[in-house]
Amino acid sequence: MEETRSARKRRAILDAARAVFLRNGYQGTSMDEVAALAEVSKQTVYKHFADKERLFTEIITNDIREGGQRSDVVLDQLPDSADLEHDLREIARRLVTAVTQPHLIRMRRVVIGEADRFPDLARTWYSSGPERGYERLAHRFAQLTDQGRLNTPDPLPAAQQFVWLALSVPLNKAMFDPEPYPVDELHRFADEGVRTFLAAYRG
């Protein structure tokens, strides 16, 4: 389906705003600069987004949604998995690869840097990303526990542990070190996290 003129402008605004926010931070970004980079009028920016905070929030939710979609397909099929360990590794690999993308790491730094002045932005990041991910994973773990394939009597902390077993080391490094991990190293963290998780929670 062909993208409408309005949708093209909205996408151009979001792309321009992401670039400006990553370059200048939240405080240093102006709607004038976003409009100029998107090659639209400032009035057009305000037509699509009422203010800078809503524009930033839209970027956050879009980026997190795109990252989450990479794992959703495998996650939705998890209760019917013929090879649970393999599919858990696939989820962990997709998760660690998505979350440590350079532009998401840079955006995470921007959000953390503005969290005291704009706590709603930080809450949006958390609720749209980590919290949503924990809840979706916990729901699947509860189903697998009902099947006797996992033993997670309290599935939410089990989901949180699953995520951080795979993600904590590479994410922590990425926040402070601009040199990214090679993909095979990210996969190694994911695989080891799954191995440890199953040692504790296999049914």
UniProtKB/TrEMBL annotation:
Signal peptide start and end residues: none
Keyword terms, alphabetized: DNA-binding, Transcription, Transcription regulation
Gene Ontology biological process terms from the UniProt entry: negative regulation of DNA-templated transcription
InterPro entries xrefs: Homeodomain-like_sf, HTH-type_TetR-like_transc_reg, HTH_TetR, Tet_transcr_reg_TetR-rel_C_sf, TetR_C_Proteobacteria
Limits of the HTH tetR-type domain: 7-67
Molecular-function GO terms, alphabetical: DNA-binding transcription factor activity; transcription cis-regulatory region binding
Ranges annotated as DNA-binding: 30-49
Pfam families per UniProt: TetR_C_7, TetR_N
The protein, known as: AcrR family transcriptional regulator
Organism: Saccharothrix tamanrassetensis
